[in-house]
Design brief:
The complex is a heterodimer of chains A (about 190) and B (about 325).
Chain A (H helix, E strand, L loop, with lengths): L1 H22 L11 H8 L5 E8 L2 H11 L10 E9 L2 E13 L2 E9 L5 E8 L5 H4 L2 H4 L20 H21 L10
Antiparallel strand pairs in A: 1-2, 2-3, 3-4, 4-5
Chain B lengths: L1 H20 L9 E16 L8 E16 L4 E12 L4 E11 L7 E8 L19 H4 L4 E11 L2 E8 L2 E2 L13 E9 L3 E14 L8 E16 L2 E12 L2 E13 L4 E11 L3 E12 L4 E12 L2 E17 L1
Parallel strand pairs in B: 8-10
Antiparallel strand pairs in B: 1-2, 1-17, 2-3, 3-4, 4-5, 5-6, 6-7, 7-9, 9-10, 10-11, 11-12, 12-13, 13-14, 14-15, 15-16, 16-17
Classes of the chains: A alpha+beta (about 190), B mainly beta (about 325).
Chain lengths: ~190, ~325
Protein backbone atom coordinates (compact mmCIF):
# COMPACT_ATOMS: atom_id res chain seq x y z
CA UNK A 1 0.00 0.00 0.00
CA UNK A 2 2.83 2.35 0.92
CA UNK A 3 4.55 1.54 -2.37
CA UNK A 4 1.37 2.38 -4.31
CA UNK A 5 1.03 5.66 -2.43
CA UNK A 6 4.60 6.59 -3.31
CA UNK A 7 4.04 5.70 -6.96
CA UNK A 8 0.91 7.85 -7.05
CA UNK A 9 2.80 10.74 -5.49
CA UNK A 10 5.58 10.41 -8.07
CA UNK A 11 2.97 10.53 -10.81
CA UNK A 12 1.48 13.67 -9.24
CA UNK A 13 4.95 15.23 -9.05
CA UNK A 14 5.76 14.43 -12.67
CA UNK A 15 2.33 15.64 -13.84
CA UNK A 16 2.82 18.88 -11.97
CA UNK A 17 6.27 19.34 -13.48
CA UNK A 18 4.96 18.76 -17.00
CA UNK A 19 2.08 21.09 -16.31
CA UNK A 20 4.54 23.82 -15.37
CA UNK A 21 6.97 23.26 -18.23
CA UNK A 22 4.34 23.23 -21.00
CA UNK A 23 2.40 26.21 -19.72
CA UNK A 24 4.96 28.69 -18.57
CA UNK A 25 8.11 30.55 -18.91
CA UNK A 26 9.36 31.26 -15.47
CA UNK A 27 8.90 34.45 -13.58
CA UNK A 28 11.39 35.68 -11.03
CA UNK A 29 10.80 34.69 -7.46
CA UNK A 30 10.20 37.93 -5.62
CA UNK A 31 9.73 37.39 -1.93
CA UNK A 32 7.77 40.28 -0.48
CA UNK A 33 8.29 40.02 3.23
CA UNK A 34 5.71 41.60 5.50
CA UNK A 35 3.32 42.77 2.75
CA UNK A 36 0.61 43.58 5.27
CA UNK A 37 2.88 45.86 7.27
CA UNK A 38 3.82 47.69 4.07
CA UNK A 39 0.15 48.08 3.14
CA UNK A 40 -0.58 49.60 6.54
CA UNK A 41 2.38 51.98 6.14
CA UNK A 42 0.94 53.19 2.85
CA UNK A 43 -2.74 53.04 3.89
CA UNK A 44 -2.93 53.40 7.69
CA UNK A 45 -6.75 53.19 7.72
CA UNK A 46 -7.04 50.17 5.41
CA UNK A 47 -9.11 47.30 6.74
CA UNK A 48 -8.37 44.56 4.23
CA UNK A 49 -6.86 43.78 0.83
CA UNK A 50 -7.51 41.50 -2.10
CA UNK A 51 -4.85 40.07 -4.39
CA UNK A 52 -5.61 40.47 -8.11
CA UNK A 53 -3.43 38.56 -10.54
CA UNK A 54 -3.39 39.73 -14.15
CA UNK A 55 -2.11 37.23 -16.71
CA UNK A 56 -0.79 39.35 -19.54
CA UNK A 57 -1.94 39.14 -23.15
CA UNK A 58 0.32 40.18 -26.02
CA UNK A 59 -1.81 43.30 -26.56
CA UNK A 60 -1.45 44.28 -22.93
CA UNK A 61 2.31 43.76 -23.06
CA UNK A 62 2.50 45.92 -26.17
CA UNK A 63 0.45 48.69 -24.52
CA UNK A 64 2.51 48.57 -21.31
CA UNK A 65 5.76 48.80 -23.28
CA UNK A 66 4.38 51.70 -25.31
CA UNK A 67 3.52 53.66 -22.16
CA UNK A 68 6.76 52.73 -20.43
CA UNK A 69 8.85 53.50 -23.49
CA UNK A 70 11.03 50.41 -23.12
CA UNK A 71 10.72 46.66 -23.40
CA UNK A 72 9.72 44.66 -20.36
CA UNK A 73 12.07 42.02 -19.05
CA UNK A 74 11.10 38.51 -20.10
CA UNK A 75 10.21 37.64 -16.53
CA UNK A 76 7.72 40.53 -16.43
CA UNK A 77 5.71 39.44 -19.46
CA UNK A 78 3.60 36.75 -17.79
CA UNK A 79 1.68 38.20 -14.88
CA UNK A 80 1.37 41.19 -12.61
CA UNK A 81 -0.12 41.41 -9.13
CA UNK A 82 -2.15 44.37 -7.92
CA UNK A 83 -3.43 44.50 -4.35
CA UNK A 84 -6.75 46.29 -3.97
CA UNK A 85 -6.88 48.06 -0.60
CA UNK A 86 -10.30 48.12 1.05
CA UNK A 87 -11.99 50.20 3.68
CA UNK A 88 -15.66 49.92 4.66
CA UNK A 89 -16.20 47.48 1.81
CA UNK A 90 -14.86 49.78 -0.92
CA UNK A 91 -11.57 50.03 -2.77
CA UNK A 92 -9.65 53.10 -1.58
CA UNK A 93 -6.41 52.49 -3.48
CA UNK A 94 -3.95 49.95 -4.73
CA UNK A 95 -0.52 48.59 -3.82
CA UNK A 96 1.93 46.96 -6.19
CA UNK A 97 5.53 45.78 -6.03
CA UNK A 98 8.31 45.20 -8.53
CA UNK A 99 11.93 44.10 -8.20
CA UNK A 100 14.95 45.45 -10.06
CA UNK A 101 18.69 45.20 -9.67
CA UNK A 102 21.07 47.69 -8.12
CA UNK A 103 24.84 47.53 -7.73
CA UNK A 104 24.51 45.34 -4.62
CA UNK A 105 21.54 43.15 -5.39
CA UNK A 106 17.79 43.21 -5.67
CA UNK A 107 15.84 46.40 -5.03
CA UNK A 108 12.21 45.65 -4.17
CA UNK A 109 10.06 48.73 -4.66
CA UNK A 110 6.47 49.05 -3.45
CA UNK A 111 4.09 51.87 -4.37
CA UNK A 112 0.68 52.84 -3.08
CA UNK A 113 -1.76 54.52 -5.46
CA UNK A 114 -4.64 56.81 -4.51
CA UNK A 115 -8.10 56.33 -5.98
CA UNK A 116 -7.15 58.72 -8.85
CA UNK A 117 -4.11 56.48 -9.58
CA UNK A 118 -1.60 59.08 -8.37
CA UNK A 119 1.26 57.89 -6.18
CA UNK A 120 0.39 58.01 -2.51
CA UNK A 121 3.73 56.74 -1.26
CA UNK A 122 6.82 54.71 -2.11
CA UNK A 123 8.44 52.13 0.13
CA UNK A 124 11.70 50.26 -0.50
CA UNK A 125 11.05 46.78 0.85
CA UNK A 126 14.55 45.49 0.23
CA UNK A 127 17.63 47.46 -0.75
CA UNK A 128 21.25 46.52 -0.04
CA UNK A 129 22.85 49.55 -1.68
CA UNK A 130 25.55 51.27 0.37
CA UNK A 131 23.55 54.51 0.22
CA UNK A 132 20.44 52.81 1.51
CA UNK A 133 19.66 55.41 4.15
CA UNK A 134 19.62 58.19 1.54
CA UNK A 135 17.59 56.09 -0.90
CA UNK A 136 14.98 55.37 1.78
CA UNK A 137 14.85 59.00 2.94
CA UNK A 138 11.71 61.07 2.60
CA UNK A 139 13.65 63.68 0.62
CA UNK A 140 14.28 61.13 -2.14
CA UNK A 141 11.09 59.06 -2.07
CA UNK A 142 8.69 62.00 -1.60
CA UNK A 143 9.73 63.25 -5.05
CA UNK A 144 7.44 60.56 -6.47
CA UNK A 145 4.33 61.54 -4.51
CA UNK A 146 1.44 62.66 -6.71
CA UNK A 147 3.03 61.39 -9.95
CA UNK A 148 0.78 59.61 -12.43
CA UNK A 149 1.24 57.75 -15.66
CA UNK A 150 2.43 60.38 -18.14
CA UNK A 151 3.74 62.81 -15.47
CA UNK A 152 7.16 64.44 -15.85
CA UNK A 153 9.72 62.68 -13.66
CA UNK A 154 12.42 65.18 -12.73
CA UNK A 155 13.93 63.11 -9.96
CA UNK A 156 17.14 64.23 -8.25
CA UNK A 157 19.32 61.14 -7.88
CA UNK A 158 21.20 60.31 -4.70
CA UNK A 159 24.87 61.21 -5.14
CA UNK A 160 26.91 58.02 -5.25
CA UNK A 161 23.80 55.91 -5.89
CA UNK A 162 22.85 57.14 -9.33
CA UNK A 163 22.32 53.65 -10.73
CA UNK A 164 20.01 52.66 -7.87
CA UNK A 165 18.13 55.99 -8.06
CA UNK A 166 17.60 55.45 -11.76
CA UNK A 167 16.50 51.84 -11.25
CA UNK A 168 13.93 52.86 -8.62
CA UNK A 169 12.58 55.56 -10.95
CA UNK A 170 12.26 53.08 -13.81
CA UNK A 171 10.53 50.53 -11.58
CA UNK A 172 7.98 53.13 -10.50
CA UNK A 173 7.36 54.28 -14.09
CA UNK A 174 6.94 50.65 -15.11
CA UNK A 175 4.42 49.97 -12.36
CA UNK A 176 2.41 53.04 -13.39
CA UNK A 177 2.32 51.67 -16.95
CA UNK A 178 1.15 48.27 -15.67
CA UNK A 179 -1.53 50.02 -13.62
CA UNK A 180 -2.73 52.18 -16.53
CA UNK A 181 -3.21 49.18 -18.83
CA UNK A 182 -4.43 46.53 -16.40
CA UNK A 183 -6.19 48.23 -13.53
CA UNK A 184 -9.58 49.22 -14.89
CA UNK A 185 -11.52 48.53 -11.70
CA UNK A 186 -12.96 51.86 -10.54
CA UNK A 187 -12.06 53.14 -7.10
CA UNK A 188 -14.84 53.18 -4.51
CA UNK A 189 -16.27 50.05 -6.10
CA UNK A 190 -16.66 46.84 -4.15
CA UNK A 191 -13.70 44.45 -4.42
CA UNK A 192 -14.06 41.72 -7.07
CA UNK B 1 2.42 8.30 6.77
CA UNK B 2 -0.50 7.33 4.54
CA UNK B 3 -2.79 9.94 6.06
CA UNK B 4 -0.21 12.65 5.28
CA UNK B 5 0.06 11.55 1.67
CA UNK B 6 -3.71 11.17 1.18
CA UNK B 7 -4.42 14.67 2.52
CA UNK B 8 -1.57 16.05 0.45
CA UNK B 9 -2.82 14.37 -2.74
CA UNK B 10 -6.33 15.71 -2.11
CA UNK B 11 -5.06 19.29 -1.73
CA UNK B 12 -2.88 18.98 -4.85
CA UNK B 13 -5.77 17.60 -6.92
CA UNK B 14 -8.10 20.38 -5.77
CA UNK B 15 -5.53 23.07 -6.48
CA UNK B 16 -4.75 21.69 -9.96
CA UNK B 17 -8.45 21.62 -10.82
CA UNK B 18 -8.92 25.19 -9.63
CA UNK B 19 -5.91 26.39 -11.62
CA UNK B 20 -7.03 24.62 -14.80
CA UNK B 21 -10.42 26.31 -14.59
CA UNK B 22 -8.93 29.75 -13.93
CA UNK B 23 -7.82 30.67 -17.44
CA UNK B 24 -9.45 34.08 -17.88
CA UNK B 25 -7.10 36.84 -19.08
CA UNK B 26 -8.87 39.25 -16.70
CA UNK B 27 -7.85 39.70 -13.11
CA UNK B 28 -8.16 36.45 -11.21
CA UNK B 29 -10.00 37.04 -7.96
CA UNK B 30 -8.83 33.72 -6.55
CA UNK B 31 -5.14 33.20 -7.01
CA UNK B 32 -3.04 30.08 -7.46
CA UNK B 33 0.71 30.40 -7.32
CA UNK B 34 3.05 27.58 -8.25
CA UNK B 35 6.66 27.71 -7.16
CA UNK B 36 9.40 25.18 -7.08
CA UNK B 37 13.10 24.58 -7.11
CA UNK B 38 15.91 22.15 -7.67
CA UNK B 39 18.96 21.66 -5.48
CA UNK B 40 21.88 19.69 -7.00
CA UNK B 41 24.86 19.07 -4.74
CA UNK B 42 28.26 17.55 -4.73
CA UNK B 43 29.65 16.60 -1.33
CA UNK B 44 33.02 15.43 -0.15
CA UNK B 45 33.41 14.34 3.48
CA UNK B 46 36.60 13.66 5.35
CA UNK B 47 36.82 11.23 6.98
CA UNK B 48 34.06 9.37 5.17
CA UNK B 49 32.00 7.56 7.83
CA UNK B 50 29.89 5.73 5.31
CA UNK B 51 26.54 7.22 6.29
CA UNK B 52 26.84 10.50 4.45
CA UNK B 53 25.92 11.64 0.96
CA UNK B 54 29.38 11.54 -0.61
CA UNK B 55 29.17 12.21 -4.32
CA UNK B 56 26.96 14.22 -6.65
CA UNK B 57 23.19 13.98 -6.79
CA UNK B 58 19.94 15.87 -7.09
CA UNK B 59 19.88 16.52 -3.37
CA UNK B 60 16.35 17.83 -3.41
CA UNK B 61 13.58 19.40 -5.42
CA UNK B 62 10.23 20.79 -4.46
CA UNK B 63 6.92 21.98 -5.82
CA UNK B 64 4.75 24.33 -3.83
CA UNK B 65 1.19 25.32 -4.66
CA UNK B 66 -0.41 28.24 -2.88
CA UNK B 67 -4.03 29.10 -3.48
CA UNK B 68 -5.75 32.20 -2.09
CA UNK B 69 -9.54 32.33 -1.75
CA UNK B 70 -11.12 35.74 -1.30
CA UNK B 71 -14.45 36.84 0.09
CA UNK B 72 -16.24 40.19 -0.32
CA UNK B 73 -13.76 41.99 1.92
CA UNK B 74 -10.43 40.53 0.88
CA UNK B 75 -8.07 37.56 0.83
CA UNK B 76 -9.49 35.15 3.38
CA UNK B 77 -8.19 31.59 3.03
CA UNK B 78 -4.73 30.42 1.99
CA UNK B 79 -4.12 26.78 1.07
CA UNK B 80 -0.52 25.64 0.81
CA UNK B 81 0.80 22.24 -0.26
CA UNK B 82 4.46 21.47 -0.85
CA UNK B 83 6.00 18.20 -1.92
CA UNK B 84 9.72 17.62 -1.54
CA UNK B 85 11.60 14.91 -3.42
CA UNK B 86 15.04 14.19 -2.06
CA UNK B 87 18.07 12.13 -3.03
CA UNK B 88 17.54 11.84 -6.81
CA UNK B 89 13.74 11.87 -6.36
CA UNK B 90 13.93 8.59 -4.42
CA UNK B 91 12.51 10.02 -1.17
CA UNK B 92 9.16 11.80 -1.39
CA UNK B 93 7.99 13.87 1.53
CA UNK B 94 5.00 16.14 2.00
CA UNK B 95 6.79 19.20 3.39
CA UNK B 96 4.15 21.74 4.32
CA UNK B 97 0.43 21.46 3.83
CA UNK B 98 -1.92 23.73 5.68
CA UNK B 99 -4.96 25.92 5.51
CA UNK B 100 -4.78 29.42 6.88
CA UNK B 101 -7.70 31.65 7.64
CA UNK B 102 -6.45 35.19 7.28
CA UNK B 103 -7.80 37.84 9.58
CA UNK B 104 -8.46 41.34 8.29
CA UNK B 105 -5.42 43.53 7.59
CA UNK B 106 -3.34 43.37 10.76
CA UNK B 107 -5.68 40.83 12.34
CA UNK B 108 -5.02 37.35 13.73
CA UNK B 109 -4.43 34.45 11.34
CA UNK B 110 -5.48 30.91 12.15
CA UNK B 111 -3.51 28.05 10.58
CA UNK B 112 -4.17 24.33 10.61
CA UNK B 113 -2.06 21.56 9.13
CA UNK B 114 1.63 20.77 8.85
CA UNK B 115 3.78 23.90 9.03
CA UNK B 116 7.20 25.17 10.06
CA UNK B 117 7.17 25.82 13.79
CA UNK B 118 7.29 29.54 14.67
CA UNK B 119 10.39 29.13 16.79
CA UNK B 120 13.55 31.26 16.75
CA UNK B 121 14.99 32.04 13.32
CA UNK B 122 12.66 29.42 11.82
CA UNK B 123 9.81 31.90 12.25
CA UNK B 124 11.08 33.80 9.19
CA UNK B 125 14.09 31.92 7.80
CA UNK B 126 13.92 28.50 6.15
CA UNK B 127 17.43 27.33 5.19
CA UNK B 128 16.27 23.90 3.92
CA UNK B 129 17.75 24.55 0.46
CA UNK B 130 20.90 26.35 1.56
CA UNK B 131 24.32 24.94 2.39
CA UNK B 132 24.71 26.81 5.67
CA UNK B 133 21.68 25.99 7.75
CA UNK B 134 20.10 26.96 11.02
CA UNK B 135 20.62 24.45 13.80
CA UNK B 136 17.12 23.14 14.57
CA UNK B 137 18.08 19.56 13.65
CA UNK B 138 20.43 19.55 16.63
CA UNK B 139 18.84 22.11 18.93
CA UNK B 140 15.16 21.14 18.52
CA UNK B 141 15.00 17.78 16.76
CA UNK B 142 11.92 19.02 14.94
CA UNK B 143 11.20 21.66 12.31
CA UNK B 144 7.75 20.93 10.88
CA UNK B 145 4.82 19.60 12.83
CA UNK B 146 1.09 19.06 12.47
CA UNK B 147 -1.06 21.30 14.59
CA UNK B 148 -2.85 24.60 14.92
CA UNK B 149 -1.30 28.06 15.03
CA UNK B 150 -2.43 31.61 15.77
CA UNK B 151 -0.25 34.43 14.47
CA UNK B 152 -0.32 38.10 13.62
CA UNK B 153 1.13 41.47 14.46
CA UNK B 154 0.27 44.58 16.42
CA UNK B 155 2.27 47.62 15.30
CA UNK B 156 5.93 46.51 15.55
CA UNK B 157 5.19 43.36 17.55
CA UNK B 158 4.74 39.91 16.01
CA UNK B 159 3.17 37.04 17.86
CA UNK B 160 2.68 33.34 17.16
CA UNK B 161 1.27 30.54 19.27
CA UNK B 162 1.26 26.90 18.16
CA UNK B 163 0.03 23.61 19.61
CA UNK B 164 1.14 20.58 17.63
CA UNK B 165 1.73 16.83 17.77
CA UNK B 166 5.41 16.90 18.65
CA UNK B 167 6.20 14.16 16.13
CA UNK B 168 9.18 14.11 13.78
CA UNK B 169 9.53 10.69 12.22
CA UNK B 170 11.75 9.92 9.27
CA UNK B 171 8.95 7.89 7.65
CA UNK B 172 6.69 10.97 7.70
CA UNK B 173 4.25 9.51 10.22
CA UNK B 174 2.23 12.09 12.14
CA UNK B 175 0.74 9.66 14.64
CA UNK B 176 1.09 11.02 18.14
CA UNK B 177 1.90 7.88 20.13
CA UNK B 178 2.26 9.57 23.51
CA UNK B 179 -0.62 12.06 22.96
CA UNK B 180 1.48 14.79 24.58
CA UNK B 181 1.32 18.05 22.68
CA UNK B 182 4.09 20.46 21.84
CA UNK B 183 3.57 24.10 22.72
CA UNK B 184 5.54 26.78 20.87
CA UNK B 185 5.17 30.52 21.35
CA UNK B 186 7.15 33.42 19.95
CA UNK B 187 6.95 37.16 20.38
CA UNK B 188 8.99 39.35 18.05
CA UNK B 189 9.90 42.97 17.53
CA UNK B 190 10.10 44.12 13.90
CA UNK B 191 12.15 47.21 13.11
CA UNK B 192 13.22 48.76 9.82
CA UNK B 193 16.67 47.13 9.70
CA UNK B 194 16.41 44.43 12.36
CA UNK B 195 14.09 41.94 14.00
CA UNK B 196 14.27 40.36 17.42
CA UNK B 197 12.41 37.44 18.91
CA UNK B 198 11.91 35.47 22.10
CA UNK B 199 10.61 31.91 21.75
CA UNK B 200 9.41 29.29 24.18
CA UNK B 201 8.92 25.57 23.56
CA UNK B 202 7.59 22.94 25.94
CA UNK B 203 6.46 19.36 25.37
CA UNK B 204 7.45 15.87 24.40
CA UNK B 205 9.02 15.37 21.00
CA UNK B 206 8.89 11.91 19.50
CA UNK B 207 11.71 11.81 16.98
CA UNK B 208 13.92 9.42 15.10
CA UNK B 209 15.59 12.26 13.22
CA UNK B 210 18.82 11.03 11.65
CA UNK B 211 20.97 13.57 13.50
CA UNK B 212 22.95 11.70 16.11
CA UNK B 213 21.56 13.81 18.96
CA UNK B 214 17.87 13.26 18.30
CA UNK B 215 16.42 9.86 19.03
CA UNK B 216 13.48 8.72 21.11
CA UNK B 217 10.76 10.48 23.06
CA UNK B 218 12.20 13.52 24.78
CA UNK B 219 10.68 15.89 27.34
CA UNK B 220 11.99 19.18 26.01
CA UNK B 221 11.94 22.82 27.10
CA UNK B 222 13.58 25.72 25.31
CA UNK B 223 13.87 29.46 25.80
CA UNK B 224 15.50 31.06 22.79
CA UNK B 225 16.45 34.53 21.64
CA UNK B 226 16.83 35.23 17.92
CA UNK B 227 17.85 38.28 15.94
CA UNK B 228 18.35 39.37 12.35
CA UNK B 229 20.40 42.53 11.98
CA UNK B 230 20.91 44.22 8.61
CA UNK B 231 24.27 45.94 9.07
CA UNK B 232 25.22 46.90 5.54
CA UNK B 233 27.06 45.21 3.89
CA UNK B 234 26.65 42.46 6.49
CA UNK B 235 23.50 40.51 7.30
CA UNK B 236 23.76 38.90 10.73
CA UNK B 237 21.45 36.24 12.11
CA UNK B 238 21.83 35.04 15.70
CA UNK B 239 20.17 32.49 17.92
CA UNK B 240 20.85 31.72 21.57
CA UNK B 241 19.21 28.60 23.03
CA UNK B 242 18.89 27.34 26.56
CA UNK B 243 16.69 24.66 28.09
CA UNK B 244 16.36 21.08 29.22
CA UNK B 245 16.10 17.63 27.64
CA UNK B 246 14.67 15.12 30.14
CA UNK B 247 15.77 17.51 32.94
CA UNK B 248 19.32 17.67 31.55
CA UNK B 249 20.44 21.27 30.91
CA UNK B 250 21.36 22.13 27.33
CA UNK B 251 22.53 25.31 25.63
CA UNK B 252 23.65 26.49 22.24
CA UNK B 253 24.47 29.45 20.06
CA UNK B 254 24.43 30.12 16.33
CA UNK B 255 25.58 32.98 14.16
CA UNK B 256 25.13 33.24 10.39
CA UNK B 257 26.95 36.15 8.79
CA UNK B 258 26.61 37.06 5.10
CA UNK B 259 28.53 39.80 3.31
CA UNK B 260 27.33 41.18 -0.05
CA UNK B 261 30.21 42.16 -2.35
CA UNK B 262 27.97 43.16 -5.24
CA UNK B 263 24.78 42.05 -6.99
CA UNK B 264 26.26 38.60 -7.72
CA UNK B 265 28.84 37.64 -5.11
CA UNK B 266 28.23 37.08 -1.40
CA UNK B 267 30.30 35.58 1.38
CA UNK B 268 28.48 33.21 3.73
CA UNK B 269 29.72 32.04 7.12
CA UNK B 270 28.46 30.15 10.13
CA UNK B 271 29.57 29.36 13.65
CA UNK B 272 27.55 27.23 16.03
CA UNK B 273 28.02 25.39 19.28
CA UNK B 274 25.72 22.97 21.10
CA UNK B 275 26.19 21.59 24.60
CA UNK B 276 24.31 18.76 26.27
CA UNK B 277 25.92 15.54 27.43
CA UNK B 278 28.07 15.93 24.33
CA UNK B 279 29.65 19.01 22.80
CA UNK B 280 29.21 19.80 19.13
CA UNK B 281 30.78 22.68 17.25
CA UNK B 282 30.66 23.73 13.62
CA UNK B 283 32.43 26.46 11.68
CA UNK B 284 31.77 27.01 8.02
CA UNK B 285 32.62 29.48 5.29
CA UNK B 286 31.36 29.68 1.73
CA UNK B 287 30.24 31.89 -1.09
CA UNK B 288 27.24 32.25 -3.34
CA UNK B 289 27.15 33.55 -6.90
CA UNK B 290 23.90 34.60 -8.50
CA UNK B 291 23.73 33.40 -12.11
CA UNK B 292 21.27 34.48 -14.82
CA UNK B 293 17.81 32.89 -15.06
CA UNK B 294 17.41 32.47 -11.30
CA UNK B 295 20.26 30.01 -10.84
CA UNK B 296 22.52 30.30 -7.80
CA UNK B 297 25.89 28.62 -7.34
CA UNK B 298 27.02 28.02 -3.78
CA UNK B 299 30.07 26.38 -2.22
CA UNK B 300 31.07 25.89 1.38
CA UNK B 301 33.63 24.23 3.60
CA UNK B 302 32.45 23.07 7.02
CA UNK B 303 34.52 21.93 10.00
CA UNK B 304 32.52 19.93 12.52
CA UNK B 305 33.59 18.47 15.83
CA UNK B 306 31.63 16.10 18.06
CA UNK B 307 33.50 15.81 21.37
CA UNK B 308 36.97 14.91 20.05
CA UNK B 309 35.97 13.61 16.63
CA UNK B 310 36.53 15.93 13.68
CA UNK B 311 34.88 15.95 10.29
CA UNK B 312 35.14 18.23 7.26
CA UNK B 313 32.56 18.63 4.54
CA UNK B 314 33.13 20.37 1.21
CA UNK B 315 29.88 21.14 -0.61
CA UNK B 316 29.04 22.62 -4.00
CA UNK B 317 25.45 23.41 -4.90
CA UNK B 318 23.60 24.56 -8.00
CA UNK B 319 20.19 25.86 -7.05
CA UNK B 320 17.31 27.11 -9.18
CA UNK B 321 13.82 28.22 -8.33
CA UNK B 322 10.79 29.77 -9.98
CA UNK B 323 7.36 31.11 -9.20
CA UNK B 324 4.39 31.44 -11.50
CA UNK B 325 0.67 32.24 -11.25
CA UNK B 326 -1.55 29.57 -12.76
Amino acid sequence: MLYKTRVRLKIVLIALSLFVFVNTAFADVCVWRDPERTMIKLFPHAEDYKTLVYKLTSDQIHNIESLFGKSLDDSEKHEFNIYAINQSGKIIGWVMALAGTGEYGVIETVIGLNSDHSIRGVYLQRVRERKRKALKSDSFLNQFDGKKQGSEFNITAITGAEKASNEITLLIKKMLAFDAVLNVIPANSKPL
Amino acid sequence: MRSHFVIFEYIIARLMLISLLATSPQALADVTQLSGGMDARSLSQSPLWGAGEEGTNLHGSFLNIRHVISDDKGDRYVLVAQLDANDNLSELEPYQFYIQRKGSLGGTNLQFGRYILPFGLLAYLDTERQLLQTNESIALGIKLDTGIQLSGFINDLNYAFSISQGVNKSDGSAKDMDNNKLLVARIGLQQEESRWGLSYLNGRIDTDNDEFYQQGNIDRQRLTMDAEIDLLPWMLRLQLDSGKDDKQSVSGALILADYDFNAHWALNSKASVWNDTDKFTEYAIGFSYRLPKDFVLRASQSWQKLNNVNEQILSIQLYWDFSYAL
